[in-house]
Amino acid sequence: MQCLDQLQERCLQLGWKSIAHQLDTILEDASVNSISYADFLGSLLSYEESSKKESSWNRRVKKAGFSYVKTLSEFDFNAQPTVDERRIRDLLARSFYRDGTNLLFLGPPGVGNYRKK
Q1: What pTM value is reported for the model?
Q2: Domain span at 7
Q3: Is residue 33 part of a domain?
């Protein structure tokens, strides 16, 4: 157990907080599934990367001070039949946001799907 504690401490020193907190579970999963060293390292790095992205997103949303956050997965396309779900999902699958291209949605005021919780 001392080895695990040392590994967790080293992960924390490197700033790998997510790995440090889940290291015992990650190691157990790797052992049970006989994962190769390269796959294990890749999964560790992916785990930490996705955790950092999520933390960064949450910090930015909190800093922005939004009164609520709503994702496309929560949008009720049935409530707005004039919005073509397939077309919206097709637009989002494209790389306009990675390319820095603007995408503008226009509609009359008051057609949003806001419900106070």
Answers
A1: 0.58
A2: 2-64
A3: yes
